[in-house]
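Deviations from the work plan: none for this task. Representative record:
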Amino acid sequence: DGGITQSPKYLFRKEGQNVTLSCEQNLNHDAMYWYRQDPGQGLRLIYYSQIVNDFQKGDIAEGYSVSREKKESFPLTVTSAQKNPTAFYLCASSPSRTGGIKTQYFGPGTRLLVL
Amino acid sequence: AQSVTQPDIHITVSEGASLELRCNYSYGATPYLFWYVQSPGQGLQLLLKYFSGDTLVQGIKGFEAEFKRSQSSFNLRKPSVHWSDAAEYFCAVGARNAGNMLTFGGGTRLMVKP
């Protein structure tokens, strides 16, 4: 079954702690994205990666970090610098950006809560 | 930069009634347009998309949307709503010169009365 998996489904963070959210895709997509979703605010782009070993900041990258060492994987770390991390985090992927815009496909999400 | 407005935060319709969810965008050229649906606690599922051509687009689950350039709109419609359609709906716009980036509206939560 092709798709995007995110783990864990729920994640709890203590003050001062870094936590990492996993995103894996087996769609052979080149591009991957991380979004944050807060009630009533739609989705906001945190980071995106168009190709392995390369990534760019989105609109709200402060307090977050990413890596893209493999095509299939794009983990997101929520650092202690992110003062309001409670949100629903969505990972997406799309085929190569060349040749015009491509549809983004989404994973099931991870809900991050602060203890 | 492009932007998307979904004017209705909540909409309630009776089962079997017709539905129209509004989406207005701001962009200087012809955009790429998408509608996604999200069930509670789940990811987003693509309903339909407009890239070019016929301005009336058919999607999954009986949904359709019409691109109206003169009104900068891409409203989502369904002739008869089912209880399982209760969810949150997001409109998104992509710019033709901005790589693969999407800008999302704030969403419309649909509730269905029996």
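The mean pLDDT of chain A is 92.
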